[in-house]
Amino acid sequence: MKRRGAIALLTAAALLLVALLALRLALRPEFLGPHILALAGEALDLRIEAESFDYRLRGTPQLVARDVVARSRDGTDTLLTADRVLVSLPWSTLRSRGAELVIERIELDAPVADLAALQRWWAARPPGDGRLPTLSNGLSVAGGRLLGDGWLVRDLALELPSFAPGRRVRAHLRGRYVAGTLQAPFDLHAAMTRPAEDAGVGLAGAISPAAEGWRLPSALVLSTRLAPAHAAGGMRLQRLRLSMRSRYLSGAVVEPFVLGLAAEGAVAEGALSLRPAALVLRGGGLVPRLRARGAIGLGTALALQLEGELARWPEAWPALPPPVGGSASPLPFTLAYRGGMSLEDPLALRLERDDTRFDARLRVSEIASWADSLETGSPLPPLSGRLTAPRLEISGAVLHGVEVEFEDDTIPVPDEVP
User: Fold this and answer.
1) Cα(205)–Cα(244) distance, rounded to whole angstroms?
2) Higher pLDDT, 363 or 1
């Protein structure tokens, strides 16, 4: 019996030693880290890999992964890279092997996200809301970048205090939108009724678009309701409403104005389309009062196609000759633009009043500079265009069947506004 007892004791000790060695091996970062990333990848239908890992098991387990890459299952798309990712998750999530998606906190340092790849991944997700994790202590992003088609967001910072399926979401976003020569730093608070495709979304905060020679510090409030779009990974924006209070700053010029926008829209492949869109502009000085309807597109370029009317000719603009200048009729206009986000490219403009019509092509920045130095500069605006009028009075002379052309060597004379 003593011999059998000794053998049993040695056997039990050996099994315990093997179990301890297996547990120690399983808890080494190079084994535990890939296992946790595999669980996350399985839940999200992604391949998630990292170069190195650290972990802490006391209290709530915590894993730190460095040089992280998240790819689509087939490896064709890289959705996200990050210098560092911290994931803190309770033992219950580990024991359930991902069946219980409860995470305490996620932190990302210097992540780079590809918007088009993210949209393709989202479009391939199962119908419905899918499985979403609960983040009891939220999400933090520092030094991030979001890549679009022809634009990017730099220095992106995000604070999400908490996240749970079916619960209201609040977040704080900061960063800098960059498209060509246009830069727009922003500091916004966002809210979503719940994380779903039909959620209501709101934004409020500050944004300050700027390009060479001008800035537009603005306070905005935006609301819309999301809905699935037909395009893969796209999203419709229903009943979008935007109000913005701004100041146009260029040299010594300070022009405050208020803009209101109502539209139906869609986001697809990193581009925003608003159609139909209706806007109202209220300003003083050089900024006119107007109403317009049409379409607006934001993507690799800015596209505008608007029709509306000026309530009246601004007093700060050069006076129109009679009889058109003395008329109290509104001025219908048509505006078309496709080019850089900072409006550095020419736009086409048509103005009409009674039987007088003016077709022109101009650059906004050059017109603003000309207006700023009107008292000492040229009385003729820097544009190309054609004015036709049945009758004009200039310096006491009455002219009939008038046709005047303005020429700027850098801007071709338009035949018609598109």
Assistant:
1) 10
2) 363
> Measured between alpha carbons, how far is 393 from 320 in angstroms, rounded to an integer?
10
pLDDT at 174 over 50: yes
Task: Tell me the chain's radius of gyration from C-alpha atoms.
Answer: 30
Q: Using DSSP, state whether 316 is helix, strand or coil.
A: coil
Residue 65 β-bridge partners: 53, 85
Nearest Cα to 78, choosing from 121, 41, 40? Answer: 121
Strands 182-192 and 169-179: what pairing?
Answer: antiparallel
Cβ–Cβ under 8 Å, residues 318 and 374: yes
**Given phi > 0 = left and psi -120 to 50 = alpha, else beta, which region is 36?**
alpha
Which range, 31-40, 61-70, 116-125, 287-296, has the best average confidence (pLDDT)?
287-296
Give the Cα separation of 335 and 359 in Å (integer). 10
Q: What's the token pair of residue 248?
A: 């146009």
Query: Could you say which DSSP state residue 15 is in?
Result: H
Distance separating alpha carbons of residues 223 and 192, to the nearest angstrom: 10
What would the pLDDT profile of 344-376 be if each residue is shown by its tens digit?
889 998 988 888 888 888 887 777 677 666 666
Please report the pLDDT score of residue 11 as a whole number.
Answer: 37
Under the banding of pLDDT at 50, 70 and 90, the label for residue 184 is very high
Domain boundaries, the chain: 23-157, 301-418
Instruction: Quote the strand ranges of 150-270, DSSP E.
Output: 152-160, 169-179, 182-192, 200-207, 210-211, 214-215, 218-228, 235-250, 253-268
pLDDT tens string 196-205: 888 999 999 9
For residue 187 the two structure tokens come to 């500091």
Residue 42: which H helix or E strand, with range? helix 29-44
**281 Cβ neighbours under 8 A, 6+ residues apart:** 257, 258, 259, 287, 288, 289, 290, 291, 292
Identify the band that residue 399 occupies on the pLDDT scale cut at 50, 70 and 90: confident
Q: Which helix (H) or strand (E) holds 22?
A: helix 2-26
Q: CB count, 10 Å around CB of 383?
A: 22
* CB-CB contact of 295 with 307 (8 Å): no
